[in-house]
Design brief:
Length: about 325
């Protein structure tokens, strides 16, 4: 029995399968608050975005937040540039970054854990409200009343500082960050924030210098400084104490800061430095300095200052205000 020859045609269906190796970026963020065009906004607004969305299902890793004074210029006119793995869909703008009665524009972009970056959000604008001088705020270098205790603080412009723009006393209780937070009794005067303008503000100027000095003057003795900023959080420097010489009653310290460094709360080199600090109390039973040599490892900083903290180039330096000063380790 013979079968007729039958031709069979095999048809291969080619399905378009996405290349799993080609990662896709997250969707562009949507801005929520402050609303576009909002007015009379606080000087420390909370910026909020909508939820993170990623076509690959990747995890939200970081968010970059930018605030500018020009909706068309997020380079030269930028006043805040923060990239954070903690503040993913909201960010409290640090105190003193924004000026009263000023129009600002802001935008955001997301990073996923595969390294892909979303497009920038559509920028929105808002206008800040007023801020009147009071006992805890000064349009200049002070003095102002401390937010904790009964003392005063003044900030004096030093090397490479054209002006102290604002000085504000800050109550640490208003800062929700508790990671590495010093004990309350180690901040007897609370914190104070200051904003300074450098002599040359354009980083592209060949004579631009990011380093600047201010002298902090207290009306009662302190033993060192503690810093806080929204990127690095609390900087616990309680193990080291800078004393000023006897003729100033241990009430002065000169701090060297770096524009755009880790102690600059606006996070960008723009000729403006915003720095929230606080004087530390003497450790219980610790004597005032004598002529003994300092104990512990001490690294020399610029202009004879002493480095506190990490070995990073943008570490904070404290130099005692005069001759005969000592830096020592305190027991905890």
């Amino acid at each position: 029995m013979r079968f007729a020859s039958t031709a069979f045609v095999a048809v291969m269906l080619v399905l378009a399968v996405p290349d799993k190796g080609a990662a896709q970026p997250p969707g562009a963020p949507s801005l929520l608050s402050p609303g576009n065009g909002a007015t009379d906004i606080l000087l420390t607004p909370e910026l909020q975005t909508g939820a993170f969305s990623d076509p690959d299902g990747d995890v939200h890793a970081q968010t970059q937040w930018q605030v500018s004074t020009d909706i068309m210029d997020f380079t030269d006119a930028i006043v805040l540039d923060v990239t954070s793995a903690s503040f993913l869909t909201f960010l409290d703008v640090p105190s003193l970054v924004l000026n009263p009665e000023t129009i600002y524009c802001w935008r955001v972009r997301f990073f996923d854990d595969a390294g892909e970056i979303s497009p920038w959000s559509v920028p929105w604008s808002f206008t800040t409200g007023t801020r009147e001088d009071d006992a805890y705020w000064d349009d200049g270098g002070g003095p102002v009343q401390t937010a904790v205790g009964d003392s005063q603080v003044t900030v004096i412009a030093g090397t490479n500082v054209a002006a102290v723009l604002f000085l504000e006393a800050v109550d640490p209780a208003t800062i929700a960050d508790n990671v590495n937070r010093p004990e309350a009794n180690k901040l007897p005067l609370g914190l104070f924030g200051f904003k300074v303008r450098l002599i040359i503000t354009d980083p592209t100027d060949p004579n631009y210098d990011p380093m600047a000095e201010v002298t902090i003057v207290l009306s009662e003795a302190g033993s060192g400084l503690c810093g806080w900023d929204p990127i690095n959080g609390w900087q616990d420097l309680s193990g080291m104490t800078a004393f000023t010489p006897e003729e100033t009653n241990w009430t002065e310290a000169t701090v060297t800061l770096i524009d755009g460094g880790s102690k600059d709360a606006d996070g960008v080199q723009n000729g403006i430095i915003v720095d929230p600090l606080g004087p530390l109390a003497l450790a219980a039973g610790a004597p005032l300095p004598d002529d003994e040599e300092a104990d512990g490892d001490i690294a020399a900083g610029p202009s004879g200052s002493l480095r506190l903290g990490s070995d990073d180039d943008d570490a904070c330096f404290i130099t005692t205000a005069g001759r005969g000063s000592r830096l020592r380790w305190l027991s905890r």
